[in-house]
Amino acid sequence: MNEYVSPETKFRTSQLEDNDGPGHNPTANRTMGEVIAARFSRRGFLKGSLAVSAIAATVSPIALITADNARAASGSVFSFDEVEAGIDDKHHVAAGYDADILLRWGDPIFADAPEFDPANQTPEAQAKQFGYNNDYVGYIPLDGSSEHGLLVVNHEYTNEHLMFPGIVTISEGEIKVSDADQKRVDIEMAAHGGSIVEIRKEGGKWQVVKDGELNRRITATTEMQLSGPVAGHDRVKTNADATGTKVFGTINNCAGGVTPWGTYILAEENFHGYFAGELPADHPEAANYERVGVPDGTYQWANFYDRFDVSKEPNEPNRFGWIVEVDVQDPNSVPKKRTALGRFKHEGAESIVAPDGRVVFYLGDDERFDYVYKFVTAGKFNPDDRAANMDLLDEGTLYVAKFADDGSFEWLPLVHGQGPLTAENGFASQADILIETRRAGDLLEATKMDRPEDIQPNGANGKVYVLLTNNTKRKAEQVDAANPRFESAFGHIIELAEDGGDFAATKGKWEILLKCGDPSVAEVGASFSTATTANGWFGMPDNCAVDSAGRLWVSTDGNGPKATGRTDGLWAVDTEGEARATSKLFFRVPIGAEMCGPLFTPDDQTAFVAVQHPADGGEDWEGFGRPSYYEDLSTRWPDFKDDMPVRPSVVAITKQGGGKIGV
Ligand code: FEO
Ligand code: CA
Ligand code: CA
Ligand code: CA
Fold this sequence. Notes:
Elements: E1 2-3, H1 7-16, H2 32-43, H3 49-58, H4 67-74, E2 92-93, E3 97-104, H5 123-126, E4 134-141, E5 148-155, H6 160-163, E6 168-171, E7 174-177, H7 182-191, E8 193-202, E9 205-208, E10 216-218, E11 223-227, E12 246-248, E13 253-258, E14 264-268, H8 286-292, E15 323-326, E16 336-338, E17 350-353, E18 358-364, E19 368-370, E20 372-380, E21 396-403, E22 408-413, H9 430-435, H10 437-443, E23 449-450, E24 452-458, E25 463-468, E26 492-498, E27 507-515, E28 541-546, E29 552-556, E30 569-573, E31 583-588, E32 594-600, E33 606-612, E34 649-655
Parallel strand pairs: 11-16
Antiparallel strand pairs: 1-7, 2-31, 3-34, 4-5, 5-8, 6-7, 8-9, 8-10, 11-12, 13-14, 14-15, 15-16, 17-18, 18-20, 19-23, 20-21, 21-22, 22-27, 24-25, 25-26, 26-27, 28-29, 29-30, 30-31, 32-33, 33-34
This protein binds MU-OXO-diiron and calcium ion (CA) (3 copies).
């Protein structure tokens, strides 16, 4: 039996609490987050609406504004009745909207796929069913339709204690989980990756087209090709692949993107967790792997597959941490790992076409004190010839961001031979820069950020939103204008304006759109507008979407009983005029879950959201108050049946009677 730490908890722990990385704070001082958490606990914030009123009554002139008054005062571009923030075992959407479950973990996505049988799951069944922990959601229209298309969904990671019966015991109030056998590992590998699923809206309701010809599962074993400058390099050759071009699988696919030419992008984020074993201290990759936290050993895959053991396959970790592109129009296409976009803990890759036709991809490296990047293709997008765009991601310039305190920023090119990126500093070629992108960014003195998550260009107003989720390890002396709070527990959002409104520009101006957290607690230093209600504020921005009108919708990861007294959710955030920085809660997730997605169809009549890791936790919620696992779950969302475990699911939100969302 292992001392149980779920993969997500471990990733979160390393990100939030005890990581010995560059931001490690050796003191025992309480962080701001802990101070705030203590306050919430004392207030008994867990009592839902009662507690919200209690806060309003005790502290905040802001919170005393009623929802209706706030709406009238704000001049908001959003119109809906705000959901009440709180915590329970269900999802909640604004009145007048339906939030229908579209795809659940285990749902068959092929005509010959077996029905989900969680007590008797097999790797073969899982490979034909919707995977676990849905994160990125993209929509690729078929025939230009907003009612018929391909939904592309990432499956970031697995939570064994929620997925498998009979593997958990409780000892002294803690979950312990049995060692994995190969079948369990194989199910986990099949539950990772992505799904491509044809969907159609009929009678106002979305349906899965189970026999869709383009339906596909991508897993941790799918054959892929390494392409771009790193392909064939010695540092990516292994015993199984002497060519350095053929990789199996993609892992920890967090957010992603859909390109202007209609391909699907999966970003490989916390790939370090899958590698175990010892690399000799004098090994040439030792410093490279230390910078990304390899090996980590969260998963037990290395017990069954040598390639995940760095003592046996020391180059395998260099084959992960990339942006993966999939041609969804051919279900047999070989996905390509596009090495020109660099190797780090990729959060996502949202893109937009620049005025001159080049395509710009915004990239976040989600670790404390890591960087914001963008990639500009060398070639131009051809809207009339899809095939001509298919290798645009193999050639271009990768840049890292440097934010100045005067409100300007610069994109610094990561190009071999320029500045310090030379052989003397260990970069023999562009391939070395791309394999060790973080170290190249270090040498260029890029700005160390508070965990860059989704970065979203907005074609409607020419701005770019950078979501920074938090960084409790930033010390007072490490604060800068772009990362303005020390021990930042709740994160912030930066707005970029590229020079001349050109997304391919190499410099521009930035300002902070929002400092997150409870605006009624002075020491948090949040900057929501005064029209924001007690329900409307949030912490830990993670993903976001802009709808076709250019309105910003933010989803969160890390709210909960202790952190903010509310579950994660989807918030509508005004960015323009008097209402700027006004936020309203539109949808919230059940206990333990994180809010991923979000994505709007081109007609703005559907919002797809992904509810990830529901029921992962429950100890801190007074509605449950004990560890949550397969046999004793803090929620059985979305089925609420005794014989069905909790299931991460994609939800389709539509307005009752039809119409655009939030209008
Ligand atoms: Fe998987 Fe950075 O969130
Ligand atoms: Ca994320
Ligand atoms: Ca996004
Ligand atoms: Ca996150």
